[in-house]
Amino acid sequence: MNDINLSLKSATTRASDTFTFDEFMFEVEERRRRENNLVIFNLEDTNSRDNDIKPAKEVIHVLNPSINIPSETGCHRLGREYLPDKRRPLKITVASLDEIKAIMRNARKLKQFAGESKIFISRNLTPRELDAKNRVLSDFRARRDKGENVFLKYSFGIPKVMQKKLENYPTATINYYYQNGEV
């Protein structure tokens, strides 16, 4: 009887963690709707929409000069109204997913462009994607703080925590994998 209760509790937990069909379809549609958007953080904020387009175009030009942002629909600030001491994220819409990929491939160039202002760029994630990304990042930080030799690898925009392999010591690498049952 105890085993049945444990199985029932486990099934209930798993069922609450899964999507319903409607939630799944909503998530798919939401991702499709956001796929051509990027969000720039820590860019100087102004009270004017026209003044937001110029710095956005400068950032995109640094990352990929061939991409244009449409002035009328291309960018707007997210969040509450303008406050002088806060910097709201700036959402940018581009024409295609290929342009997004080209921009994200060159995102590391922002460090040189931004200097001390710590400007960074990200895809426009859904709340579920953001939650999953935060869980992976917290797992990464916890494992790194414990002393594990790990790094983040992004595959198709999804972060994964990976174990660093031992380098320059082929025998040690083989022994490591053999001892951990990974051979």
The DSSP helix count reads 7
Number of strands: 6
CATH fold description of the largest domain? Alpha-Beta Plaits
Q: Which stretches are poorly predicted, pLDDT < 50 over at least 5 residues?
A: none
Main sheet: strand order? 2-3-1-4
Q: CATH top level of the largest domain?
A: Alpha Beta
**Could you tell me the radius of gyration in angstroms?**
22 Å
Helix-strand sequence: HHEHEEHHEHEEH
Major sheet size, sense and barrel closure: 4 strands, antiparallel
Keywords:
Alpha-Beta Plaits; single chain; 48% helix; 183 residues; 6 strands; alpha+beta; two-stranded antiparallel sheet
Task: Explain the overall architecture.
The chain is α+β, with helices and mostly antiparallel strands. The chain has two domains: 34-124, Alpha-Beta Plaits (2-Layer Sandwich), CATH 3.30.70; 129-179, no CATH class. Helix content is 48%, strand content 15%. It has a four-stranded antiparallel sheet, with helices on one face. It is globular and about 50 Å long. The mean pLDDT is 80.
Give a quick precis of the structure.
This protein has 183 residues and is α+β, with helices and mostly antiparallel strands.
